[in-house]
Write a structure and sequence with these properties.
The chain is α/β, with parallel strands linked by helices. It has eleven helices and eight strands. The protein has one domain: Aldolase class I (TIM Barrel), CATH 3.20.20.70. The chain is about 50% helix and about 15% strand. α1 packs parallel to α3, α4 (about 65-75) crosses α5 and α8 runs parallel beside α9 (about 170-180). The chain is globular, with a radius of gyration of 20 Å. The protein binds SN-glycerol-3-phosphate (G3P). SN-glycerol-3-phosphate binds near residues 6 and 164.
Length: about 220
């Protein structure tokens, strides 16, 4: 399973990428706003830090404008992945960009039928938003299972399932159990993945005992 990080905060990305665990980054207009940075500058910096796919989202809603924006964004770095919304224009732009071998992430997916369309459009990634489905009383993970089942039925569909809108570590584990290809993690959820009180307590006990031996390894 690939781990992407869902943020446009460069210092956070630097810190977390030093773990060697990051395979890519996703951003969206809200995360760019939160960063307070210019999109072109911040995406360029992120692409320098993380060699994997870095999603930058178009802001246009019509096909022609999306392609114009994609031209600018993809010129930033080789690993820029163009993020388009799950609309007819977005799917059309996806097909055109994929024909040119540009990586495309189709975002704002809330149904299996939408995911099927994105795969037909040749999307590199489909981003189903699990947290936002949970927020309205539905089960986001059911959507991940459905998409997995559908894509598995048609091995010629090469779209990777990128689980987005993750709120907690259970989302990550559930997505891994289902077999999703990628999770994009808010930094706090990535940090929580390692936490276990028995690890902390166990390490403390080992270190206390080690001190009592009076030994040194080096
Ligand atoms: O990047 C898209 C997605 O991860 C957004 O998540 O928390 O705004 O629903 P959220």
């Amino acid at each position: 399973m690939k781990f992407f990080i869902d943020t446009a905060d460069v210092s956070e990305i630097k810190e977390l990428s030093s773990s060697g665990l990051l395979d890519g980054v996703t951003t969206n207009p809200s995360l760019i706003k939160k960063s307070g940075r210019n999109i072109n500058e911040v995406i360029a910096e992120i692409c320098d830090i993380v060699p994997g796919p870095v999603s930058a989202e178009v802001a246009a809603t019509n096909y022609e404008e999306m392609l114009k924006e994609a031209e600018v964004l993809k010129a930033i770095a080789k690993n820029v992945t163009i993020k388009v919304p799950l609309t007819w224009d977005g799917l059309k732009a996806c097909r055109t960009l994929r024909n040119d071998d540009v990586l495309v992430n189709v975002t704002l997916c809330f149904s299996a039928s939408q995911a099927l369309l994105a795969a037909k459009a040749g999307a590199t990634f489909i981003s189903p938003f699990v947290g936002r489905l949970d927020d309205i009383g539905l089960n986001g993970m059911d959507l991940i299972s459905d998409i997995c089942e559908i894509y598995t039925n048609y091995p010629n569909l090469n779209t990777e399932i990128l689980v987005a809108s993750i709120r907690n570590t259970n989302h990550v584990i559930d997505a891994a159990k289902i077999g999703a290809d990628v999770v994009t993690l808010p930094p706090n959820v990535l940090k929580q993945l390692i936490s276990h009180p028995l690890t902390d307590n166990g390490l403390k006990a080992f270190l206390d005992d080690w001190k009592l031996t009076g030994q040194s390894i080096t």
